[in-house]
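Homework help board

Subject: predicted structure for assignment chain

Our instructor gave us this sequence and asked us to write out the predicted structure in C-alpha cell form, then describe one feature. I got the C-alpha cells but I'm not sure how to describe them. Can anyone check?
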Amino acid sequence: MVAKPKKAKKMVLVHSCFDIELGDPLPSLCACRQWKTLHEAQGMVSRHEAEVVKGTEYRHICLLEGMARRTPRSATIDAKHIDRAYVQRDMEEKHRINEYGALNKKFLTDLIRYVPEAEFNRNKEKDWGIPILQFVEDNRTPGGINKETR
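My C-alpha cell output:
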C-alpha cells in the first residue's frame, strides 16, 4: 500500500540577518535557514515577535529586536553606522561614532608606559637585536622524512 503524499504546507523564511525596524532592506543573499509554517509565522506576527517583510506576501518575515538570536558583535563602527550618521544625518549615530573614537583613543594611550631613560637604556643594551619570538632549535628533518643526509 502506497501512502498518499502529504499536502505541502506553505513555508515562510524567518530572517534575523537584518533589522526591519531600522528600515534595512531585505538582503539579496543571507544565511537564514529557519523555516516556519504559514500558521506559525502568522502567530509570531500577531504576538509582535516578527514582522512581515513588505512585498513578500508572507514568504519572508523578520524577527523584531530582542527576538533575534544573533551572535554577539564587538563594539565597532560599520558602513551602516556611517551611512546613518553622515548621509541620513542621525545625531545619535554621530554621537556613537565620536564616543567610539574617544574610547579607542583612551585605550591606545593607556597602553603607553613611560620608562626612566636609565632603565630604557639598560634594557635596550640587554635586549637589542633579540627577536621577540624565536625558535630555540630547528626540529625539521634535514632532507625530508625518511631521507638520509650525506
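Reply (TA_rk): Your C-alpha cells look well-formed. For the description, you could write something like this. The radius of gyration is 29 Å. That's the kind of observation they're looking for.
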